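Researcher: Checking consistency across runs. Here is Tellurium resistance protein TerC again:
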Amino acid sequence: MALVAAGLLGLPLAGSWAGAGYWAAAGLLWPGLARRNRTQALLLLAVGGLCLAWSAGQGAAVAAERILASNSALLSMLVAVSFLGLVSRPGAEREERLPRGRRALASTLGAVHLFGSVINLSSVFIIGDRLARRGSVSREQAIVLIRGFTAAAFWSPFFAAMAVTLSVAPGAQLARLWLVSMPLALLAMALTFWQLSRQGGERASIQEFRGYPLHAGSLVLPALLAAAVLLLHEWRPALSILAVITLLAPALSLAVVVASRRSPVATLGQLVNGRLPQMGNELALFLAAGVLGYGLDTLLGAWGATLPLDGFGPLEASLSYLATVLLALLGIHPIICIALAGAVLAPLSPDHTLLALVFLSSWAVGTSAGPLSGINLAFQGRYGLDSFRIMRWNLGYLGLMSVLVVLAIWLLAALLGVEG
């Protein structure tokens, strides 16, 4: 990450140096990866490698440096975001009484959404462990935690979804995207609140819902970070959003650590020995997906194949979203879908802001219901909830949110002047 940041600041460093570091890290962490993730990564590498081999046989140029630097910028952003966990944690006051009822439902949705938008999946389990009884959470608590967290993918610049999306659609205008994606996130949480508050015979259980308290101070850090990202991007428009976050997140986090009179060396030691080694699954998957994306891009270029489409308007965007969500239900990770869609749609020169909304929405909605998504499998392992049962709980939500997303796609296309 430091090598990528140094390159962004103007030092003449080839991206392959950082890439070599990430591949070495993936090799060292490989034995500890989940079996499913190893299988997925090997499959992606095999398909991407075959595409590159066939393309090379057809005379296409294959750059070894691009393979080595596979998704280095994306991974650097994810590492940078992990620094935020050093300064942003949900309150750990065990003695505070947990609220109950509809108000608790709303505060839990807000808490997991806001903290999740900054420190990602760890926030879900910090809050979930606080709510858990006898090692598990209730159906309603699981739904709130999963949907509240995944809805942050609609807009959060610190989410893996945004990192992957911006690596494929680097020209996306974040300010214009937020005009549509932030309301979608609010609608997702409002829909969850409405569904759980009106569930007929189980209504009494909502009155007994044990939730997590949300304090006004919790709003400050996510708002400040989002504002800082936009301001720095406006000040230095040559820097992509991906680059801005890679530079900003570690710098702000270390500044807060120093200001709070904590030892920066000891704090960094906690990060290096704690959170970073846990990124092995993401590291292997994103490196392999980078090879797949490059392989598909090269294959399509050498093959000369084109889609039977003249452009990428709201209709094509809506169909792309629905196809990606369907693949998520079949257990395919969103990053694979985005890599495939990015390579296939590139010849159409799609509007990057519209394309970003498609990818972010498919991630936000698809991962909440996908039985093999990371968060649902994590809930299965941590709280003993079957991931296919979680899928059934969220199918109605997926259907209603998909209607809203398609409407949002048409609205954004109109705002951008993209014709159908």
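Researcher: Does this match what you'd expect to see?
Model: One thing to look at in this run: The chain has one domain: 2-416.
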